[in-house]
Amino acid sequence: MDFDLKPIAEKVRTGQRLSAADGLTLLRSRDLWTIGELADHVRQKLHGRRAYYNVNRHLNYSNICALSCKFCSFFRKKGQDGAYEFSIEQIAQQARRASEAGATEMHIVGGLHPWLPLSYYTEMLRAIREAAPTLHIKAFTAVEVVHLARISGRPHRIDQVLCELKEAGLGSLPGGGAEVFDDRVHDEAFKGKIRSDQWLQVHRTAHALGLMSNATILYGHVESLEDRVHHLCMLREAQDEAVGGNHPGRFQTVIPLPFVPDDSQLQHLPGPSGLDDLKMLAVCRLMLDNFAHVKAFWVMQTLGLSQLALQFGVDDIDGTVVWYDITKVGGADTHQEVSVADLRRAVCEAGFEPVERDTLYRRVQRDGARWRVIEEPVAVGASS
Ligand code: V47
Prior knowledge:
Layout: H1 6-13, H2 20-28, H3 32-47, E1 50-54, E2 56-59, H4 88-100, E3 105-108, H5 118-131, E4 136-139, H6 142-151, H7 158-168, E5 172-173, H8 183-189, H9 196-208, E6 212-219, H10 225-244, E7 251-258, H11 274-287, E8 293-294, H12 298-301, H13 303-309, E9 316-319, E10 321-323, E11 335-337, H14 340-349, E12 353-356, E13 363-367, E14 370-375
Parallel strand pairs: 1-9, 1-12, 2-3, 3-4, 5-6, 6-7, 7-8
Antiparallel strand pairs: 10-11, 13-14
The chain binds ligand V47.
């Protein structure tokens, strides 16, 4: 065992919060097995052998984006080859199909479209709600929400815009767009995007309105290990605030996203290795003691690595996905789907119990395409 990990192991076993310095020691250590064991200890205390998945449908309504982030291969400019935007009718049809196929969630994100008005987004939500009333709509990253506030002429009224989206059918916010909370990295890899303060403010506002949300960290590009730890500490602090607030809203899960270099302006970088992925997932589990869940997103981490990640602190592997345009690992196209049978098999093979959940982590009982909620989620508060 790496000698430097001993005091950290003691803290983990006695349920003490880890410091930023501990986070850095973990990320610098080459003793992946000890780190994995510690993360597994925390994971088992929270979730036992359970591993969550959901039946969902991702939808990227448009790849047209006012920004040109260097890490991103998804964006196109209006009129450029491959640029697209879906009509409300097309989106409603996708929602109907997803619901008929048994999906419980639609996960919707897109580029910062320069010309679509706020009404496009509210109509989208209303149309989905009408076409598929049982689908939970998890939509719009904090960056998109800020964009919508700007285009509606109310850059400082995030609360009003979120209320309007909620009223139209928004169920929760996904965790995207956080990237890495550091100004140097921001200016180098995603200049023009909102900074950490605004990202956190959108989530804080959503929580106050009773909406649940998720958080991400995009790692393995131009950030340092210190930047990663700083990001996690900021998320933990924001979650302390949410948990201590007088409302049910908070972060449910953290999704560490490995940078996929292909076709981006940073494609000369190698991207993180499998070992880095496992360590990062485990460190998220250890540092974020007030987050209930750590998710491996199989579209980016691959299903094989996600299986192994279940022993490194991960308790959720996202869902059936079906269609995804933001990253395409190993030459995949937009059809990125895994069946429920394959998700369950992956979990069982890894020695865990597959549990279908809805977006709010309530256990779901299913009969074909029909489903109902049968259990409330685990509660995780802030630790001292
Ligand atoms: O916001 C973009 C990231 C995010 C790349 O909330 C990239 O449950 C890696 O946030 N390499 C979208 N990452 C994905 C996302 C997500 C996924 C699954 C579940 C949830 C959830 C959220 O992907 C973007 C951006 O941060 N991203 N380009 C890239 N080349």
